[in-house]
Amino acid sequence: MSAAAEPTEGPATVQPPEPFGARLRRVTDARGPLCVGIDPHAALLDAWGLGDDVAGLERFTRTVVDALAEEVAVFKPQSAFFERFGSRGVAVLERAVADARAAGALVLMDAKRGDIGSTMGAYAAAYLDRTSPLFSDAVTLSPYLGFGSLRPALETARANGAGVFVLALTSNPEGPEVQHATVADGRTLAQVVLDHLAAENAGAEPLGSCGAVVGATLGRTDADLAINGPLLAPGLGAQGAGAADLPRVFGDALPNVLPTVSRGVLRHGPDGSALRAAVRAETEALVAVLR
Q1: What pLDDT, in 10s, does the model give residues 126-142?
Q2: SS3 call for 265
Q3: In 10 A of CB 137, how many CB atoms?
Q4: DSSP 107-160
Q5: Do 214 and 168 meet the contact criterion of CB atoms below 8 Å apart?
Q6: Cβ atoms of 249 and 212 closer than 8 Å
Q7: Strands (E), 12-94
Q8: What is the C-alpha to C-alpha distance for residues 291 and 289, in angstroms, rounded to an integer?
C-alpha cells in the first residue's frame, strides 16, 4: 500500500497594500489634521543660525523630523530645497523620508512633477514605487499636460498603496490664467481636473487616494470639491489664511481638508519643544474648525 502523498502548499497570497486614503484617514484621526512642510530655504536656515549648505540642511531637517515625526500626521518636504544641493542634498531627503515614515508620519513629497509617457513613469518610480529610496506615501503632480498624462503615476500609486495630490486651484496669482480657462462644455480647467479625480476615487472608502491641491487663501471658489479624496490646503500662516477661513473655501468638503503649514511652525525652531508647541497649537485650532 503506497504512502499518502504529502500535501502541497499553493502559492502564497500576496495582500495588496492598504490604500493611501485609508492610511491618511487613520493617521489624521489619531494625530490631527495637520501637514507640516519641510522647507529649508536659505532665509529659514539663516534664521535658525545655520549655514546655507549641506551641513545646515541636514541639521535643519533632522531637527524637524526628530521633534515632530511622532506628533504630526503628514510631512511635506519640498524637494527643490534638497535638490539644489545635488546628490548630497537628495541623500538628506532620503534619510528624512525614511525616518519620518518609521516614526509613523506619512510623507507627501512636494515635487509637482508632470510629464508624459516613460518620463512620467520614471517620476512615478522615483516617488511612488516601494523599492525606491525616495518612496513617499504620496506626491504632488501637475496635470497641465492633460490629466491622462498622469496615468503612469496613478497606476504606480495604486499598485503601491500610495497617493497623489494634483494641482487644481492654486493660490499663486498666475494660476487663474490656466486654471480658470474654460473647455467646450463650459467647465473650468480646474473643474475638469477635479472631476477626473472624483472618477478616480469613485467607491473608495473611507477616502480615495487621489487628492487635489486647493489654496486656503482663495475664498469662495464655486468649484465642486466633492472628489471623495483629500484636499491639500496650502496658504495657512505666512501666506495669510487661518483656520477660520477654511469653511468658506471648502464648504461641505471640509472634513476631507488637509491643511498644510510651513513657516508658521518652522519659525519656532530650532528648539524642539517650541516646534512641538507650535504644532499642538495649530492642530487644536484646526480640529475646532474641521471637526
Answers
A1: 999 999 999 999 999 99
A2: helix
A3: 26
A4: EEEEEEE---HHHHHHHHHHHH-TTSTT--SEEEE--TT-GGGGHHHHHHHHHH
A5: yes
A6: no
A7: 35-38, 74-77
A8: 6
In SS3 terms, 204-248 reads as CCCCCCEEEEECCCCCCCCCCCCCCCCEEECCECCCCECHHHHHH
pLDDT at 142: 98
Looking at residue 130, its pLDDT comes to 97
Say what the pLDDT of residue 2 is. Answer: 45
Task: Look up residue 109 and give its DSSP letter.
Answer: E
Residue 153's closest CA among 139, 169, 172? 139
- Tell me, what DSSP letter sits at residue 252? G
| Residue located via cell numbers 482663495 | 218
Torsion sign (Cα): 239, 240, 244, 245: negative
The grid cell for 217 is: 487663501
Catalytic-labelled residue, pool 41, 95, 101, 112? 112
The C-alpha cell of 141 is what?
503632480
Rg (the chain; Cα; Å): 20
Q: Grid coordinates standing for 269?
A: 525652531
Please indicate whether residue 112 is annotated as part of the active site.
yes
Determine the residue type at 141: L
Cα–chain center distance at 84: 21
List helix spans (H) across 161-219.
176-179, 189-200
| pLDDT for res 1 | 44
The rounded average pLDDT for each run of 10 residues, N- to C-terminus, in the chain (291 residues) is: 51 81 98 98 97 98 98 98 98 98 98 98 98 98 97 98 98 93 97 98 98 94 96 87 93 97 96 98 95 76
- pTM exceeds cut of 0.85: yes
CA distances from 157 to 2, 141, 142, 160, 171 (A): 52, 12, 15, 5, 26
